[in-house]
């Protein structure tokens, strides 16, 4: 089995998706009572959810992973989780909006049952909650000018062409570029994704390096750009898959296991996976490898 790193862009920048303090959507926040995996009557968490007809999910309002549009919860995680819970006999997702850093503490406090935010699976987080098997990986891509004038395909081609690469400040993509042998003078730091798109369009950089998921979403509002096919970069000889999954409270392993059984059906069916998640920029390149396991990711 391949070795998998514990660092991802979304793990590295886990404070950047905060939405300014703990926020709730009026009328959508449910009671903050803790839900245990069982009760004195032996009733399990899934059976409780089936009886009440809904599951409380948390999101961080980060497109395309999980966000509210009007009154509808959209994105990769809510779309996938809605499909899974409906298959488990729970028809409705009831959302709670949280700052990114508050997602796991809120889960531990019983404010919701599942984190539906595309959260990266890291050993540190595994110490505080339990994750599903990976529901996606985040291969890297390059945003370039329309027509891809430099004919870039990956970091090796960028190094060979001697182009200037843009990366997000503090993000792990900078280490990917350096690891590929691109000199620091050819790596420009930008503060936010739109800055990268603007720099590409303005010719200040030749390519912007970020996850393919994020770049495809960004390209929707930047029509003078295009995104290369996604690729898996290496760092210190290891593939950087950057996987994410659903998060459950410790003690709800049975619920997590039921979720995993339905998740496996979807990720094993490439056409179904793409049909569900393509509107959010997820395609076949985001389907997790069969041998990529949460247990290994949690070990680091």
Compile the SSE list and pairings.
Elements lengths: L8 H4 L32 H8 L1 E6 L7 E3 L2 E3 L1 H12 L4 E6 L5 H6 L5 E7 L2 H4 L3 E2 L8 E6 L9 H7 L3 E4 L4 H7 L7 E4 L2 H9 L5 E5 H8 L5 E3 L6 E2 L2 E2 L4 E5 L4 H15 L2 H8 L16 H6 L1
Parallel strand pairs: 1-4, 1-5, 8-9, 8-10
Antiparallel strand pairs: 2-3, 5-14, 6-14, 7-10, 7-11, 12-13
What does the model show?
The chain has 300 residues and is α/β, with parallel strands linked by helices. The protein folds into two domains: 44-135 and 241-296, Periplasmic binding protein-like II (D-Maltodextrin-Binding Protein, domain 2), CATH 3.40.190.10; 138-237, D-Maltodextrin-Binding Protein, domain 2 (3-Layer(aba) Sandwich), CATH 3.40.190.10. The protein is built from twelve helices and 14 strands. It has helices spanning 9-12, 45-52, 76-87, 103-108, 123-126, 155-161, 173-179, 193-201, 212-219, 253-267, 270-277, 294-299, and strands at 54-59, 67-69, 72-74, 92-97, 114-120, 130-131, 140-145, 165-168, 187-190, 207-211, 225-227, 234-235, 238-239, 244-248. Strands 4-1-5-14-6 form a five-stranded mixed β-sheet. Strands 9-8-10-7-11 form a five-stranded mixed β-sheet, sandwiched between helices. β2 and β3 (72-74) form a beta hairpin.
What is the gist of this entry?
31% of the residues lie in helices and 19% in strands. The protein contains twelve helices and 14 strands.
